[in-house]
Write the C-alpha coordinates for this entry.
Amino acid sequence: MTIIYVDADACPVKDEVVRVAVRHKVKVFMVGNSWMRLSDDPIVERVVVPGTPDAADDWIAERAGTGDVVITSDIPLAGRVVGNGALVLRPNGRPLDQASIGMAVATRDLHTHLREVGEITRGPAAYTKQDRSRFLDVLETTVRLAVKTASTL
Protein backbone atom coordinates (compact mmCIF):
# COMPACT_ATOMS: atom_id res chain seq x y z
CA MET A 1 0.00 0.00 0.00
CA THR A 2 1.41 3.37 -1.05
CA ILE A 3 1.84 6.10 1.56
CA ILE A 4 2.87 9.71 0.99
CA TYR A 5 5.19 11.17 3.63
CA VAL A 6 5.57 14.95 3.73
CA ASP A 7 8.41 16.73 5.52
CA ALA A 8 5.81 19.34 6.37
CA ASP A 9 7.29 22.14 8.50
CA ALA A 10 8.25 24.39 5.58
CA CYS A 11 6.50 22.55 2.75
CA PRO A 12 4.67 24.92 0.37
CA VAL A 13 2.64 22.18 -1.37
CA LYS A 14 0.69 20.52 1.44
CA ASP A 15 -2.69 21.34 -0.12
CA GLU A 16 -1.59 19.95 -3.49
CA VAL A 17 -0.40 16.72 -1.87
CA VAL A 18 -3.77 16.29 -0.16
CA ARG A 19 -5.64 16.90 -3.41
CA VAL A 20 -3.70 14.18 -5.26
CA ALA A 21 -3.81 11.78 -2.30
CA VAL A 22 -7.59 12.08 -2.00
CA ARG A 23 -7.99 11.46 -5.74
CA HIS A 24 -5.90 8.26 -5.49
CA LYS A 25 -7.08 7.26 -1.99
CA VAL A 26 -3.51 7.23 -0.69
CA LYS A 27 -2.72 7.80 3.01
CA VAL A 28 -0.68 10.94 3.82
CA PHE A 29 1.49 11.56 6.87
CA MET A 30 2.32 15.25 7.39
CA VAL A 31 5.34 15.14 9.69
CA GLY A 32 6.68 18.18 11.52
CA ASN A 33 8.02 19.61 14.75
CA SER A 34 4.94 21.67 15.49
CA TRP A 35 1.18 21.52 15.16
CA MET A 36 -0.08 22.63 11.76
CA ARG A 37 -3.52 23.30 10.36
CA LEU A 38 -4.33 20.63 7.79
CA SER A 39 -7.22 19.13 5.91
CA ASP A 40 -9.83 17.34 8.02
CA ASP A 41 -9.91 14.49 5.52
CA PRO A 42 -9.28 11.20 7.34
CA ILE A 43 -6.74 10.25 4.66
CA VAL A 44 -4.39 12.88 6.18
CA GLU A 45 -2.65 12.20 9.47
CA ARG A 46 -0.68 14.85 11.35
CA VAL A 47 2.46 13.59 13.10
CA VAL A 48 4.14 15.98 15.53
CA VAL A 49 7.60 14.82 16.53
CA PRO A 50 9.89 16.20 19.26
CA GLY A 51 11.61 19.50 18.46
CA THR A 52 15.04 17.96 17.90
CA PRO A 53 16.67 18.87 14.58
CA ASP A 54 16.28 15.57 12.72
CA ALA A 55 13.24 14.09 14.46
CA ALA A 56 10.90 14.51 11.47
CA ASP A 57 13.55 13.17 9.09
CA ASP A 58 14.19 10.15 11.31
CA TRP A 59 10.46 9.42 11.62
CA ILE A 60 10.01 9.47 7.84
CA ALA A 61 13.23 7.56 7.06
CA GLU A 62 12.29 4.75 9.45
CA ARG A 63 8.99 4.18 7.62
CA ALA A 64 9.28 5.15 3.93
CA GLY A 65 10.24 2.44 1.48
CA THR A 66 9.48 0.89 -1.88
CA GLY A 67 6.07 1.95 -3.18
CA ASP A 68 5.99 5.12 -1.04
CA VAL A 69 6.41 8.78 -2.00
CA VAL A 70 8.33 11.34 0.07
CA ILE A 71 7.98 15.10 -0.39
CA THR A 72 10.98 17.00 0.98
CA SER A 73 13.52 19.73 0.28
CA ASP A 74 15.91 18.10 2.74
CA ILE A 75 18.72 16.50 0.71
CA PRO A 76 20.07 14.21 3.48
CA LEU A 77 16.53 12.90 4.14
CA ALA A 78 16.04 12.38 0.40
CA GLY A 79 19.26 10.35 0.28
CA ARG A 80 18.10 8.15 3.14
CA VAL A 81 14.69 7.36 1.68
CA VAL A 82 15.95 6.92 -1.89
CA GLY A 83 18.23 4.28 -0.38
CA ASN A 84 15.10 2.62 1.08
CA GLY A 85 13.46 2.52 -2.36
CA ALA A 86 11.00 5.41 -1.92
CA LEU A 87 10.22 7.86 -4.71
CA VAL A 88 11.24 11.40 -3.73
CA LEU A 89 9.97 14.74 -4.98
CA ARG A 90 11.10 18.20 -4.08
CA PRO A 91 8.31 20.79 -3.69
CA ASN A 92 9.35 22.35 -7.01
CA GLY A 93 8.47 19.08 -8.78
CA ARG A 94 12.02 17.89 -9.33
CA PRO A 95 12.46 14.21 -8.50
CA LEU A 96 15.48 12.85 -6.67
CA ASP A 97 16.56 9.30 -7.37
CA GLN A 98 19.65 7.09 -7.24
CA ALA A 99 21.06 8.84 -10.33
CA SER A 100 20.59 12.41 -9.05
CA ILE A 101 21.00 12.22 -5.28
CA GLY A 102 24.81 12.21 -5.38
CA MET A 103 24.95 15.49 -7.29
CA ALA A 104 22.30 17.02 -5.01
CA VAL A 105 24.34 16.08 -1.92
CA ALA A 106 27.54 17.46 -3.48
CA THR A 107 25.85 20.74 -4.40
CA ARG A 108 24.38 21.07 -0.92
CA ASP A 109 27.79 20.44 0.67
CA LEU A 110 29.45 22.98 -1.64
CA HIS A 111 26.92 25.67 -0.73
CA THR A 112 27.33 24.88 2.96
CA HIS A 113 31.10 25.25 2.64
CA LEU A 114 30.78 28.55 0.75
CA ARG A 115 28.51 29.96 3.46
CA GLU A 116 30.94 28.81 6.18
CA VAL A 117 33.88 30.60 4.54
CA GLY A 118 31.89 33.81 4.13
CA GLU A 119 31.11 33.73 0.44
CA ILE A 120 27.90 35.49 -0.40
CA THR A 121 25.41 33.04 -1.83
CA ARG A 122 21.87 33.53 -2.92
CA GLY A 123 19.04 31.93 -1.04
CA PRO A 124 16.65 29.60 -2.78
CA ALA A 125 14.73 30.93 -5.77
CA ALA A 126 11.22 32.25 -5.11
CA TYR A 127 8.50 29.62 -5.39
CA THR A 128 6.51 30.26 -8.59
CA LYS A 129 3.21 29.23 -10.14
CA GLN A 130 5.24 27.19 -12.62
CA ASP A 131 6.89 25.30 -9.72
CA ARG A 132 3.45 24.53 -8.25
CA SER A 133 2.11 23.39 -11.62
CA ARG A 134 5.18 21.21 -12.30
CA PHE A 135 4.89 19.73 -8.81
CA LEU A 136 1.23 18.76 -9.33
CA ASP A 137 2.00 17.17 -12.69
CA VAL A 138 5.00 15.21 -11.44
CA LEU A 139 3.25 14.21 -8.20
CA GLU A 140 0.34 12.77 -10.18
CA THR A 141 2.71 10.67 -12.29
CA THR A 142 4.80 9.66 -9.28
CA VAL A 143 1.79 8.54 -7.21
CA ARG A 144 0.55 6.43 -10.12
CA LEU A 145 3.96 4.78 -10.42
CA ALA A 146 4.18 4.23 -6.65
CA VAL A 147 0.72 2.64 -6.50
CA LYS A 148 1.63 0.35 -9.41
CA THR A 149 4.94 -0.57 -7.72
CA ALA A 150 3.27 -1.23 -4.36
CA SER A 151 0.65 -3.46 -5.97
CA THR A 152 3.38 -5.75 -7.33
CA LEU A 153 5.06 -6.22 -3.93
The first helix runs from residue 14 to 24. The domain at 3-148 is CATH 3.40.50 (Rossmann fold).
